[in-house]
Amino acid sequence: MTTGAILAGGRSTRFGDRDKAVAALAGVPLVRRVADRLVGADDPVPPGADRAAGGEPVVDELVVNCRPDQRAAIDAALDGLSVPRRWALDDEPDLGPVAGIGNACRTATGEYVAVVACDMPFVDPGFLAALAGDAAGRDAAIPQLDDRWFQTTQAVYRAAPMAAACERALARGDRKILAPIADLEYAVVDDAAIRERTTDRTFTNVNTQEELAAAERAIRAVADDGDDS
């Protein structure tokens, strides 16, 4: 069993005065876009368009990590989702993604957790499924672009070891996202392997209003192509 975990607890200071998680992207809240791609119910936007829009879910349940004050709005945004969902609330907010991932891993019922940030509306579900295969028998599988950037918020972790590693990192006051990774036995999915499986658009973040507008144009372009066919 694989749990999907969406990280939504950040303050989104670059986005403006709205909660980014529930901001509308082409009429659909960002967090719902991510959830829909994991369960095969999104628009057919590459990469992984076929599976994102009509394939089998890549997760058996969804865990949402957020602050308590976000729960009601996110719950409404996820109404009718086809897989069960659980909540991993940040009782002490603003500790960053180490706390968010740790909370999600503690809440998950699956052995492995496919983690995605709520601002990655083009996550490739097939790529996540492949990462789950890479993680089998290990504590994690983490993509690494260009031999530099570990994509820790689109990765697969074994729940129990990662939860414990996050707890240890926070206990020593280390909030850097790579801090818990040092305690794990993990596979690195390098740039060449990433590009064989998907495109780097899977990692696209929506951090600003300008990036939201660009993402909307990408979705509208796919819809326009469909209208012409």
Quick take:
This protein is α/β, with parallel strands linked by helices and 229 residues long. The chain has eight helices and ten strands. The strands form two sheets. Strands 1, 4, 5, 6, 7, 8, 9 and 10 form an eight-stranded mixed sheet that branches. A two-stranded antiparallel sheet has the order 2-3.
Write the layout of secondary structure elements.
Layout: E1 2-7, E2 24-25, E3 28-29, H1 30-39, H2 49-54, E4 61-66, H3 71-77, E5 85-89, H4 97-107, E6 112-117, H5 125-135, E7 140-145, E8 149-150, E9 154-158, H6 159-171, E10 186-189, H7 191-197, H8 209-228
Parallel strand pairs: 1-4, 1-6, 4-5, 7-10
Antiparallel strand pairs: 2-3, 6-9, 7-8, 7-9
Helix pairs in contact: 4-6
Q: What is the helical fraction, as a range of percent?
A: 25-40%
pLDDT < 50 stretches: none
| Span between termini | 38 Å
What is the number of strand segments?
10
Order of SSEs: EEEHHEHEHEHEEEHEHH
Percent strand equals: 15-25%
What is the general shape?
globular
Structural class of the secondary structure composition?
alpha/beta
User: How much is the average pLDDT?
Assistant: 94
How can the largest sheet be summarized?
A: 8 strands, mixed
Radius of gyration: 16 Å
Q: How many H/I helical runs?
A: 8
Oligomer: single chain
